[in-house]
Amino acid sequence: MTKVHPNVVSAAASADTAARVEEKGEAVSLTVWRRSLLFNGKGFTVFDGAGDLVFRVETYAGGSSRQVVLMDADGRALLTVRRKKLSLADEWIIYDGDAATPSSPAPKRFTARRHVSLRPTKSLAHLSPARAPAGGAAAAAPSCRYDVEGSYAGRCLDVFASPSSASAGDERRRVASVCRKEAAVGPDVFRLVVEPGFEPPLAMAVVILLDQMHAS
């Protein structure tokens, strides 16, 4: 049987993974296990090719499914994925850090929406840069929007980046992909490949989004 369990938690695993993407210009392949490290919890465990824990998601029994926090190997919050309330469409917001911290409001990074169409289509979701709050200081806004195409149930999809403004041109490129892991049994273990220039935490946030959309 394929080994799924990661090695002992490595405090530097997440930083090392990001460094390889930025410094060496290499695509990084992560193994995603759709299972929490907690006995009575739900979530994800993500580790690299060396078996080191990189990211984890833990949703406690009875906890709200509207908000999911992506953490590094040491449990520090990296991104929060939160479903919007009272929305006419299925919309989510991606925040930096832990959006539940009242003393320090987390900045919004992206808004995400499930793609809805009456015609057969490969489109699954769209992520757009979040707007700065009115009257607030404008943060360094992301320069790209992202489109997700493929099948999450089949664990076969791609994430494409497009310029957020028409003046930036029409170049479109693949920044991440999800595929079945060789020799893995079932859909709960799969591979997440992150291309150079794209943040591994954001790629994992897209997986969390699709899991939320698929379950809703």
Keywords:
single chain; 216 residues; mainly beta; Porin; globular
What is the average per-residue confidence, as pLDDT, rounded to a whole number?
80
Q: Mind telling me which CATH architecture this is?
A: Beta Barrel
Query: Number of DSSP helices?
Result: 2
The helicity comes to 10-25%
CATH classification class? Mainly Beta
Spatial strand arrangement across the major sheet: 1-2-3-4-5-6-7-8-9-10-11-12
Largest sheet, in brief, is: 12 strands, antiparallel, barrel
How far apart lie the N and C ends?
A: 32 Å
In one word, what is the shape? Answer: globular
Q: What do we call the CATH homologous superfamily?
A: LURP1-related
Counting DSSP E segments of at least 2 residues, the number of strands comes to 12
Under CATH, the topology is which? Porin
* Order of secondary-structure elements: HEEEEEEEEEEEEH
Return the structural class. mainly beta
Plain-language structure description:
This protein is mainly β. It has a single domain, classed as LURP1-related (Porin). Helices cover 13% and strands 39% of the residues. β4 and β5 form a beta hairpin. About 2% of the residues have low confidence.
How is this structure best summarized?
The chain has 216 residues and is mainly beta. It has helices spanning 13-24, 200-215; strands at residues 28-33, 41-47, 53-60, 67-72, 77-83, 91-96, 108-114, 123-129, 144-151, 156-163, 173-180, 189-194.
